[in-house]
Amino acid sequence: MNGDQTLLHVADLRIGFRVPHGMITAVDGLSFTLRPGEVLGIVGESGSGKSQALLAIMGLLASNARVSGQIDFAGRDLLSLTRPALDRLRGSDLAMIFQDPMTSLNPYHRIGTQLAEVLIKHKGMGKDDAARAALAMLDRVRIPDAKRRMRLYPHELSGGMRQRVMIAMALLCQPRILLADEPTTALDVTVQAQILSLMQELVRDTGTSVVIVTHDLGVVAETCDRVMVLYGGRVMERADVDALFEAPRHPYTRGLLEAMPRLSTVRQKSLKVIPGAPKAASVTAVPGCPFAPRCGRRVDRCVQVMPPVEAIDIDHDVACYKPYASSLVEVDGPAADDRVSTDLRGGA
Amino acid sequence: MTATDTPVLSAKNLKVHFPAGAGSQWFGPRLTVKAVDGVSFDLMPGEILGVIGESGCGKSTLGRALLKLIPATGGEIAWSGQDVTSLPEAALRQRRKDMQIIFQDPLASLDPRMTIGQIIGQPLKTFEPGLTRKQLEVRVVETMRQVGLNPSMLHRYPHEFSGGQCQRIGIGRAIITRPKLIVCDEPVSALDMSIQSHIINLLIRLRDELGMALIFISHNMSVVQHISDRILVLYLGKEMEIAERDALFARPLHPYTKALLSAVPIPDPKLSRQRDRVILEGDTPSPITPPSGCVFRTRCPIAIDRCAVDVPPLLSYGNDQRAACLRTNEAAAASLADGVA
To answer: What b/e string do you get for B44-83 counting C-beta neighbours within 10 Å, with b at 16 or more?
Structure first.
């Protein structure tokens, strides 16, 4: 993929929340681009700022949020748009699906009514036309017996069905960007597999670009073209999906991949761990890299100045003073050994 | 370890049925949810049994019923060889020392008004009331070290700890009485991904050091595969398959096990593009009105008419691997016939 064209360009996005005793920084200087037709994954643990970044694009941040930076979509800065202008984009050009479809559908209205409303509002369709289009969309997301289900209320559907309805609603106006915040986290694995394959198929057919936020590296590997790894509100690593899983350069990315139990027939005795725990966002700003306190490759500079996000390879950016080399076998301390012999190691 | 031949826990045809109100009419037939419906297994000392299944399959109910935290409506439960099915609560009480549980939500399972020391020491106060305060504290401090908590945090409260640390506190409370079995109900599902591996490693280490058996309930296939010696696959309260871990992953016999394995996203983009996936249609049916015959047949890719009629028995396929599927049985019979001919 060559990336001359960009659909969405986020530059130096900062999101803070005003609380009684100061400001909490959730996202700290985030920059990225989204290309047409691309599926971008944002991975991070709790407090990494991944969901807040998505909400900022949709203009859905809580009222005590303070945002700065730029979110450039088709030549317009989303952060400086007026509410009516933003409303015209949301639901038509920009659509979002959430983790819990129950709380994002209106419990008082029938599925059909909620779907048709989107088309009536954004496309100016008549009621009957909108209902027909909504029904066609429900068929398309493979809701069996869609005609009858149009008349049901959200609580009468299963979790998987509700998520299908959400996806149908999001895709009704053929958005250019679909934002998905943990879209399958609340679902069982067999249903997750259905929803992911459905999303992939629809995205392929419509050319919609997708930003998917998740904590599941398996989901990223299966659905994304590019991945961005966040920690403490900052970008740690950004790469093509194959490169990221094959040769993660950032110690955090590598740590995450190694800490994961995997389905393999070779028994691993003990899992590699990243020491410590993700730090909750606080009012006291920390200089340097947020991952430094847990990092095995930390040098003095790491805790003083945040390393810049720099290109380390083609389409591969890393924010680290001591990134790993691209080859897997690196002659540098125990980390490299562990990487090679994860499956063979005895006790740790 | 003594008495290694006596299972620390055994369940025979265990059933937990809940009343679910009347049918559509006021005086209609009583409905029941068959949360657990005929589960049998033995758990040996020091063994880790993984229980896997999707939401509503009865895995948490099974865990609680095994500990007699909720009453079983049928079948038998034995703890260390002694039948406890109809033992009164008073008689059970002393025996509960051997049977502990840890929960999914680490913070919610700790009393916010008790200090860490009080929480971890509580089971000892209950089961060994003769201990002096000093002795109690020594044991608590020792346990805190075992689960990787700094003993200087003895007088702190649960809200001061992270999720991973709270889970360590829960584990400390469970192991302080030196139990023979701990039921772990989704112990890592609520934790961040970089913390899950800490807790998994801790549980395996404690099993190795203390020799207790674990029942590890989870919906996460990769985690269960990593930690378990044997794995039980549940669907709508029924045992679909039970096998040694390696056998189950190398040669899953039940179509549901195959589908579950195939649905797990693999954190390797190249591998995941190559593999052929079995994607099940639809959702799990309601446990109030489960399908006739084999409960899995409505989503099974290889179901035949007979599956709607006959309930498949759990049959052994060698090496301690058992599966409940008519088609698996047909295939096994066919390959056996081939071998003879």
So the answer is: bbbbbbbbbbbebbbbbbbbbbbbbebebbebebbbbeee
